[in-house]
Amino acid sequence: MKDFTDTLLYFVPAVLVLGAMFLMVKKFLDKEYKVHIIEARKMIQKDSLPLKLQAYERLVLFLERISPSNLLVRTHRTGISAPQLHADLLATIRAEFDHNLSQQIYISTAAWDAVKDAKEETLKIFNTAYGTIGSNGSGMQLSSQVFEEMMRRDEIPTQHAIEILKKETRQLLG
């Protein structure tokens, strides 16, 4: 029995010291792991910030390019018919949008939804104006009708989306 108690007297303190050492090492490693994770996140954010900013810039440029007034100036040609101008406007918007689809990876869902809504509302402006003019109208008549349609609206759809993108960009930059 004395051998058993002697053995316990050696092993119990050893197990307690071993347990305490285990807990200390575990706590240290957990802290080091958390520090490592935080540093890794900072590196990722540092590397991804320029990509995010570039995405916001490209989408603002997209919205400016499809703004009805800017798009009409770029697309309208002398003597063009309403159907041809309408087709050119819609094709340009879709091509510009397709070119910028990948930017959605870098921005929030709300911002991307605002960009898509602006595109759809801009298409709606052109379609409504074309529906009013009809296929026998001229490109100049269609342009005038687009401007009238824009005047009826409280806000130009692309401007609303640009404001959302600007707000998010400011939040990114702190």
Q: Report low-confidence residues grouped into runs of 5 or more.
A: none
Radius of gyration: 31 Å
SSE sequence, one letter per element = HHHHHH
How would you describe the shape?
rod-shaped
User: In what range is the share of β-strand residues?
Assistant: under 5%
Number of domains as seen in the coordinates: 1
Which structural class do the helices and strands define?
A: mainly alpha
Gap between N and C termini, in Å? 71 Å
Instruction: Determine the number of helices (DSSP H or I, runs of at least 4 residues).
Output: 6
Q: Name the average pLDDT.
A: 90
Task: Describe the structure using short key phrases.
6 helices, single chain, 174 residues, rod-shaped, 84% helix, mainly alpha
Note the topology.
Layout: H1 2-66, H2 68-75, H3 82-99, H4 109-133, H5 139-152, H6 157-173
Helix pairs in contact: 1-6, 3-4, 3-5, 4-5, 4-6
Task: Please describe what this structure looks like.
The protein starts with a helix and ends with a helix. It has helices at residues 2-66, 68-75, 82-99, 109-133, 139-152, 157-173. The protein has 6 helices and no strands. It has one domain (49-173). The model has no long low-confidence stretch (mean pLDDT 90). The chain is mostly helical. Helix content is 84%, strand content 0%.
Short summary:
The chain is an all-alpha fold. The protein has helices at 2-66, 68-75, 82-99, 109-133, 139-152, 157-173.
